[in-house]
Amino acid sequence: MDNLDKMRHTLSHVLAAAVRMLYPEVSFGIGPSIDNGFYYDIDFGGIKISDADLPKIEKNMRKIIARKLPMEKRVVSKTEALDWARDHKQKYKIELIEELPESSEISFYDLGDLFTDLCKGPHIKNTSEVGAFKLVRVAGAYWRGDEKREMLTRIYGVAFETEEELAAYLKQQEEAKARDHRKLGKELDLFCFSDLVGAGLPLFTPRGTELRELMANYSLSLRGREGFKKVWTPHITKTDLYKTSGHYAKFGDELFMVHSQVSGEDFAMKPMNCPHHAQIFASRPRTYRDMPVRYMEATTDYRDEKTGELGGLSRVRSLTQDDSHVFCRNDQIKDEVKRLVGIVKELYETMGMQKLRARLSYRSDEDKYLGDKKLWEMAQKQIKQAAIDNKLDYFEQEGEAAFYGPKIDFMAEDAIGREHQLATIQLDFVQPERFGLEFTNSKGEKEQPVMIHHATLGSIERFLSVFIEHTGGWFPFWCAPEQVRIVTVNDRVASYVSKITALLDEIVLDKPLKYNELRYTVDESADSLSKKIKRATEMKIPVLLIVGPKDVEAEVVSIRLRDKEEKIKLSKLADYLRNL
Prior knowledge:
Blueprint: H1 3-22, E1 27-28, E2 33-34, E3 37-43, H2 54-66, E4 71-77, H3 78-87, H4 91-98, E5 105-111, E6 115-118, E7 132-142, E8 151-160, H5 163-179, H6 181-187, E9 191-192, E10 203-204, H7 206-225, E11 229-230, E12 236-238, H8 239-245, H9 247-251, E13 257-259, E14 266-269, H10 274-281, E15 293-302, E16 318-328, H11 333-350, E17 356-362, H12 373-389, E18 394-398, E19 407-413, E20 419-428, H13 430-434, E21 439-440, E22 446-447, E23 450-459, H14 460-471, E24 484-488, H15 494-506, E25 508-509, E26 516-517, E27 520-523, H16 529-538, E28 543-547, H17 549-554, E29 556-560, E30 565-569, H18 573-578
Parallel strand pairs: 11-15, 17-18, 24-27, 24-28
Antiparallel strand pairs: 1-3, 2-3, 3-8, 4-5, 5-6, 7-8, 9-10, 12-14, 13-14, 15-16, 16-23, 17-19, 19-20, 20-23, 21-22, 25-26, 28-29, 29-30
Helix pairs in contact: 1-2, 3-4, 6-14, 7-11
C-alpha cells in the first residue's frame, strides 16, 4: 500500500471516530481506502443519514485531525478480539472475527485514545499526515454485498495529498455531473426505464436506437473488412452448454433460468456468446487451410445482476455485445492479435478517444482459473509480446484475467480525464479443450485450435454510457441521431425548404460508415426563431440550417454549428456536409 492509500485508509478511521462522537450507538462494518478516497459502512440503528449531515461529520473529522493523534497498531488473540467486539456491541466486527482461524493474531489500530478499530492496516503515523479531503455523498450498501443482509449507510470521502489535487478532482466531478449519461439520456430522448419492464432493462427510443445501431454497425463494418463473418445464435440455451464451458460453475448465480413447460428441460438466457460460437466451429470438419475462422455477432445477453449494482446503462441486466471469436492455429496468434489491435485503435480514434492504455490482465494464485498453468504462462508471454509488437502503452495486473485465459483490456480516456475499460482481446486455450474443438493440421493429425475472444465496444450499453459522457451529448456529426435540423424564419420559405430537403435526401455520407443516409428534420412550427434555435440547441443537434426570405433570394443557407456560423451557397451544401 502506497502512502496515499495509507492516508485514505487512516481517514476512514477518522470518519468512523467522528461519526461515533455524534452517534455513540452506531455499529461499524468496514472502512477501506478506494480509488480517489475512502468510505465506511455504518449501521445507524434506524437513524436516517443524508448528504445534509456530512458537513457536521466533516467538521468533527477536522477537529480530530488537528489533535495530531497517532495511529498505533496492537496485536491480540482471537479471544481478546471477540471480547472487545462484544463489549463494544459491534456485531459486524464479531462476525468478521469469528470467521478467522482460532490461532489467528488479530490487529487493532488505536487512534490516540479516541477510537479503536479492527484493522489489518497499514496507516500513516498520525493524523497530521492525512492530506486534503472532503466527504462527498451518502449511499446504501448491503452488508458484505448480500441483498439478503442488512442495509448499511455508506459514507464516501475523497482524499488527495494536496488541496490543489483535491480541487482539480472536485472540478472534474462537477463536470461529470453535467455529463451524466442518465441525465443526458432523458434530456436528449435516448433511452428510458420502466418499473413494469424491470430494473436494469433499458428501453431505447428511436433516437437512442439510431445511435446504438450506428455504433454496432460501425464496429461490425471494421471487423467485416478484416474477414469476420456474421453469425446468429439464440437467446436461450440448455444449461449443459455452460456446464461444459465452465461458465455455469463460475457464474451460475448470474443466470436467468427458463423452464420449458413442454419438455421439462431447464434453459438459461445466454449470458455470453463464446460457447455458442464454439458450437458453430464444431459443426463441421476443419483443416489447417480453413484457419483462421472468424465469427462476429452483435447480440443481447442477459445477466442477473444485483439490484444495488445496477446504474443507468453502465451496469444492466440486458447487455448487447459486439462480440467476435477467432479460431486459429498457434502460429497465427500474432497476426490475429495485431489485426484486432488495429481495429480497436481505428474505432477509438474515430470516437475521439485516441488515448488508450492496455492492461495486460494475468491470472493470480487464486483457485478460480481453469486450465494448465503452463498453458497460462505461454499465453501470458504471448499477450505481453503482442503488446510490445504493437507498441501499446501497457501495464501488467495480476488477478484480472478471465477464468479461461489472459487478456488485453483497453483503457480509454474520456474528455475529462477519466479512464474506462472498454475493448478487450482474450486468449483462450481452455474452452477449445473442454468442447473438444479440433482441426486437421498439415501432417494430417488432429490439433486443437486457439480461441481468441474480442469485443471492440464491449457492452454497447456500457460503451454508450461512456460515449454520451465523453461527448456531453454533442455527438460527432456522423453518428448524431439527428444530424441536421432546418429552422424556418416564417412560412414564406416553404418552397425553398422543399428544395433543400430534396438535396439532403440525395446525400450519402461515406465516412466512417458507407451508405450513411443523412438524418434531418424540419421545424416549421409557429414559434419564434429564437425558441426554435433554443430547442435545437438543447437537443444538441450538430447542424442547424436557418432559412429566411433573404436566404431564398440569395440561394444560400445560414449554417449554425456548435462553435461557428456562416452562410454558404445551396449548391455547395452537399459537399459541406460530407466533409463535417
